[in-house]
Queue: 2 jobs
Job 1
Amino acid sequence: MQVVYSPRHLAHDIDTETFMGIAIPANEVAERAERIRTALEADGGFTSMDPTAHGEAPITAIHDERLVRFLEVAWSEVRAQAIPRAFLSADTYPNIAMFEGMSPDAIERLVREPSHVGGRAGFWGLDSAAPLVAGTYDAACAAVDVALTTMDLVLDGATTAYGLCRPPGHHAARSMYGGYCFFNNAAIVAHAIATSTGERVSILDVDYHHGNGTQQIFWRRGDIRYISIHADPARAYPYFLGHAEETGEGDGAGENVNIPLRAGATDADYLEATDRAIEAIGGAPGSIVVVSLGFDTYGLDPIGDFALTTSVYHEVGRRVAALGRRLVILQEGGYHRPSLGENARAWLRGAEGRSFEPLPVAGFTEQGTVV
Ligand code: SP5
Ligand code: ZN
């Protein structure tokens, strides 16, 4: 399988995030992508290539141009406004209750983007846990190029291809970044496939978190079906979307399929959910599936609460590929660094119908014991 990778992700050099008001070691770090790259290289069955530049048009086809411009200048504004921080995090968010009683028209006319960068980050951001640094915009643009180059491989005839996107994308909505995501790589690709082929596209999101951004972008669209298996938002980020009752509206009615799972979900629970998701994909026409691939479902993940093991990723990859559709597989989350490479190898080998033999990882076994 071809792997698309760019070292430009290294510019999004994160070591700290904030969680409920305190600074903690960052989860979404450069080591994640490097672990996966190294493991796929060691496997021998993958060939790596650089992305090609696709320009800004595919991004602004999905995202508000003003969000793109904010992300482009955010870090220079932090410096110009002399904000003494190592990374940008918002001050105030426009909670919808702030505008209660105002008409949509009044809100549209009267509520505007401020000039203070802490206010701007609140205007465009979802949460305080998505740090933005000097190299974030360039890395986010590179991740989009990685995703679109992966798409090109599949449009040119590959059965499967994998884009090692970092930063991830599925929490980014049309006019919002957040959840470690800046541009929605999978949504940009799904839209580009739908417009270039005229075919319907399905997106299967198997990250631990609900992909609220992808859901928002395609909520009213009948040409793109979004299917997500994730932690019930009652207990997990992004909290306010991801319930089973969210099924789309207008042309998109019935095209949004959410499958929330309980804490402690096992391999067996996950395979059952996978079969439901695969059935939902089979119910829509189209020859290509975009996979938002996350490994924060793993039992040892520091921010998830599922109990999955490496072998289930092989089986999920196998079952998804058995649909007989071509797969554009894009990396989203997954924060237990020692297992990321093995979990990616397992999933991707499954998707190619190949066997999976675990390789030793220094200092780690699946049972969590130190060797
Ligand atoms: C792409 C992706 O996976 N984004 C995830 C964003 C999650 N942001 C909130 C993280 C909350 C961390 N909670 C830690 C709880 C530890 N018990
Ligand atoms: Zn996630």
Job 2
Amino acid sequence: MSLLVVGSVAFDSVETPFGKREKMLGGSASHFSISASFFTNVRVVAVVGGDFGAEERAVFENHRVDMTDLEVIPDGQTFRWFGRYEYDLNVAHTLDTHLNVFAGFQPKLSDGSKGARLVFLGNIQPDLQRDVRQQIPNAELVALDTMNLWIDTTRKSLQKAIEIVDLLIVNDAEARQLTEEPNLIKAARKILSWGPKTLIVKRGEYGAAMFTKDAYFAIPAYPLESVFDPTGAGDTFAGGLMGYLASQETLDEAALRRAMIFGSVMASFNVEEFGTERVQRLTQEEINQRFSEFKRFTNFEEIPFERAVKAAR
Ligand code: AMP
């Protein structure tokens, strides 16, 4: 088994300026695993209630997402998130959260899961993220995502979790809030000093940037005319990124750069429709096409200054 994700499986109710949906399949682990399934085998560690029905199960099955470690509490209710976006789709407003079965969640990893090569600690309470990290000491690469809620309420535990992972994936507002540092470059340097070898900062419609001790790499977002629902974009990005890495033998900087493009390609599809709808029916051809477009958008010839000046004369 190559890739493991621990996170939320949820029912989301979302309102954007363009429409509204009630009780659709969501959660960090759902968005992540469906996206990653296009690249690799992925197993989900999460908890759901008796209301998680055949329809939701079928979505995971159709993408060969391994549900061995998906705990079901038959007389409980699945975690619910209620959110709203204004015209600035980069900012999610949480209207309500019902923890339900999530309240007593203690991730239990089967022996198969403990052998995962790559692990994504999706957005959940940082104590649980640490607990899972400690159950997989031999993973080659462990990544972590979080949200403002945990920075506000459990900062110390979150920082301890960040100290023991290889890759932190957060958005720019979270990186600033975490470090209390308004300059993103300084914020990145601070986060790298805590332990992770790599930091990836998601910047919504402006793309994403990668920081290591010696390197910097940044890409734009895929230019889209219609963005419908940004929910899960971050997890879909991480799913494409980690899924691609899991399919590679060598996890060097070149692989990380390509992984960022695959992550952005997957996220660009996710936001075109509500929830996981668009990614569910994605084809390899569509992924390839956007990957190539990214290359065209960002590729340029390096020329010496003298040649530019000569051309102007
Ligand atoms: P993002 O990729 O950042 O847009 O994440 C969106 C997903 O996060 C939604 O599908 C929600 O179900 C999930 N979510 C929201 N709040 C929480 C929370 N407190 N704990 C775990 N998952 C959450």
